[in-house]
Write a structure and sequence with these properties.
alpha/beta, 343 residues, 11 helices, 10 strands, single chain, five-stranded mixed sheet
């Protein structure tokens, strides 16, 4: 089975994620394990779908319900979970009888190639699963292709919206409307109430915000702290951030790995500069950054105006903002006003 192949190559695949995407060992290994879970889950789901569902039989009628494949599914996958996310989308499509064209993130073609090789080694024919690496233009070509019936996408909101727009068009010879399943990032907040246990809150916040350099849609990007404990919490967070070690992902002493590419480093640096201009930099990691690689110092920022873009836009880097609130209700109102929602 594909799950068996991935399980046998678990360490090698984790090493490839580390090499290709800078994903730390523990998270790379977890990503491989999640991919295996996806495969086993959808295999079980396929059995249930095949069985169908009983329907009420009206006298003089015979009613039945069965599932049929959509057709060609275009899977457009991200780089930050280079095995788990494409595996889940590909496995779901194949398990329901569809053929798949996998377009991996241009930063992680190697992981996608290993995944497709595992599917083919397990017996999935080449005609049922194709690999189409390349830049963003390749994803757009899939989105507008009239032969594609469904698009499964995980990535930024900007790209997701563009895919939705492209998929809404119909072209000559296209007799169907495309369906789009899009997961488009997050702006995740942690609310710290006045009775919180800060011994638990501080390490949990730091791990969520800076693990994998904040390059996850599930990473904490914004802390909303009750006035009564805000000063103590911010002081302790500042102390924790200052001690973070930035370094190569294969080094177990590193807390924060590099960013995926130079463009990402420039984007995060621009947000940090905006925080310094509009508010205050409370703390930055005190360690020296490595000479080679796209590294950014983990940063804690505060005293920002309510309309600061960094409070509502997805940074996707090691930058955490903190704010005071007078109640949990106020914090929830702020969360509800965000254009993102995920965890």
């Amino acid at each position: 089975s594909v799950a068996g192949i991935l399980r046998a190559r678990r360490r090698t695949l984790a090493a490839l994620e580390l090499r290709e995407c800078g994903k730390p060992w523990d998270q790379a290994d977890a990503d491989v394990c999640e991919a295996i879970d996806f495969l086993e889950y959808y295999a079980r789901q396929a059995i249930e779908l095949e069985a169908g569902r009983p329907l009420a039989q009206v006298p003089g009628e015979h009613n039945e319900m069965r599932y049929v494949p959509c057709g060609v599914v275009a899977v457009i996958a991200p780089w930050n979970f280079p095995l788990a996310i494409p595996t889940g989308m590909v496995a779901a499509a194949l398990a329901t009888g569809n053929s798949v064209v996998l377009k991996p993130a241009e930063q992680a073609p190697g992981c996608a190639a290993e995944l497709v090789a595992a599917f083919r080694a397990a017996g999935v024919p080449p005609a049922a699963l194709g690999l189409l690496p390349g830049p963003g233009e390749v994803g757009r070509a899939l989105a507008i292709d009239r032969r594609v019936r469904l698009i499964a996408f995980t990535g930024s909101a900007a790209v997701g919206r563009e895919i939705l727009r492209e998929a809404a068009e119909t072209y000559d010879g296209q007799t169907h409307l495309k369906r789009v399943v899009a997961e488009m990032g997050g702006k995740n907040c942690i609310i710290v109430d006045s009775d919180a246990d800060l011994d638990e809150a501080v390490p949990a916040i730091v791990a969520s915000a800076f693990s994998y350099a904040g390059q996850k849609c599930s990473a904490c990007a914004r802390v909303l702290a009750h006035d009564r404990i805000a000063d103590v919490l911010f002081e302790r967070l500042a102390g924790a951030v200052a001690l973070l070690q930035v370094g190569a992902p294969e080094d177990f002493a590193s807390d924060v790995p590099p960013l995926i590419e130079h463009e990402a480093q420039e984007r995060v640096d621009a947000y940090v500069q905006a925080c310094a201009h509009d508010g205050r930099i409370i703390a930055r990691a005190e360690c020296k950054l490595p000479q080679s690689g796209w590294y950014c110092s983990p940063t804690l920022a505060g005293d920002l105006p309510p309309n600061a873009p960094v409070l509502t836009e997805e940074v996707f880097g090691p930058l955490l903002t903190v704010e005071r609130v007078d109640s949990v209700e106020t914090a929830c109102d702020l969360v509800d006003s965000l254009p993102f929602a995920l965890t």
